[in-house]
Design goal:
Blueprint lengths: L5 E5 L3 H12 L3 E5 L16 E2 L14 H24 L3 H4 L5 E4 L3 H13 L5 E3 L10 E4 L3 E2 L2 H14 L3 E3 L6 E4 L5 E5 L2 E3 L3 E4 L5 H6 L7 E11 L12 E3 L4 E5 L4 E5 L7 H10 L1 H5 L6 E10 L5 E4 L5 E5 L5 H18 L10
The structure holds flavin-adenine dinucleotide (FAD).
Flavin-adenine dinucleotide binds next to helix 1, strand 13, strand 16, strand 17 and helix 9.
GO cellular component, one term: cytoplasm
GO molecular function: D-amino-acid dehydrogenase activity
Organism: Algimonas arctica
Amino acid sequence: MTSSPHIVILGAGLIGLSTADSLLRRGARVTVVEREATVMRGASFANSGMIHPSQACNWAGPANDLAVDAAVQDLALRSMTLLQDRMTGLGLTAMRSRAPGCFQIFDHNADADQGFARLQARGIPVERRAKSSQTFDRPALFFASDRSGDARLFGDALARSVVTQGGEIQLAAQAPKIEMHEDGRATLVVGQDRCTPDGLVVACGAQSATVLRAVDIDLPVSPVRGWAADFRLPEGASVPDVPVMDASSRSALTRFSDRLRLSGTWGEDSVTPLLDRWGHIAPDFMAGLDAPIQVWSGLRPVSVAGRPYIGQTRVSNLWVNTGHGHMGWTLCAGSGALLADMMCDGRADTRFALT
Ligand SMILES: Cc1cc2nc3c(=O)[nH]c(=O)nc-3n(C[C@H](O)[C@H](O)[C@H](O)COP(=O)(O)OP(=O)(O)OC[C@H]3O[C@@H](n4cnc5c(N)ncnc54)[C@H](O)[C@@H]3O)c2cc1C
């Protein structure tokens, strides 16, 4: 690749923006192309905010592959350090200094005990906690090393920084798609414009597989819907200051600076199961909330393998950074840095290869 390569990134979610940021810091010329009118409108828009290396396991597959989980956890730990540094660099000091930790709550003691044993065996830092008001009187695990923060606030700040660093972000791009150039490289087509950059990165989240299908590349990533309902912070009620994750519904209650968010569930087609579940877990607390100020749903880009795809495709200038499933906020900074290392410095990491 030339000394100052031109890289085009398709998709301005957490992953595309983090990739852009990392590439700019390595001296690349970067253009981000996004089909929506603003950045961060995909799965990154209203997630649960947990930066949770503790959850580095396959939520989609029937059984976990321990080597894959270890690779994701490794990336997550590197990512958390990079993410916290980036928060500081972007002036997000309140986010950087949020109370550490996440709870995971269970219906029964036996489930919590089983989860504790499984995570301990994998070397994940975890504490078994008794029922308390912070866990809505449910048996719990506590992950003291996990963190949290408002992903959208971060992504918006990162987008501004990308532009300040000289990157370009093209919004509302007209039906961007990829075609093969006659020289065997990938070309980006946006309306009447065509461009064959040194590197073209697909970071389109749950749409990545569709985008790549146009050039006959099979990406085993599928969309899995999740929901979020935001509420005004209730006056007088005690709200846990770290996220509380419900193991059985794969959802969480997270307090942000200006709102409270219930978010998650896995493949449901409405917000009702999420609200019903928390009505069951915390009936008094839920009864004290006003109607939601925002209800949203987004599609997680879930990879069959239980780990993201980060690296080059069989087309020389075409790269992928996608398939982060329930871990995209946790993994964004590390994934961006890893792909930038690959593209600029020739680093290889077959653990995340698209094979
Ligand atoms: C309810 C919910 C809760 C979650 N909670 C957490 C959590 O607590 N912690 C955590 O680590 N992760 C969490 N996640 C997962 C995380 O949010 C995702 O993994 C992450 O947002 C994926 O980022 P992305 O950039 O790959 O995709 P997206 O954010 O979806 O971004 C993809 C972008 O590509 C654009 N795009 C698509 N097609 C094209 C095209 N053809 N041309 C140009 N642009 C295109 C889209 O418009 C979008 O802007 C949660 C997800 C959900 C849904």
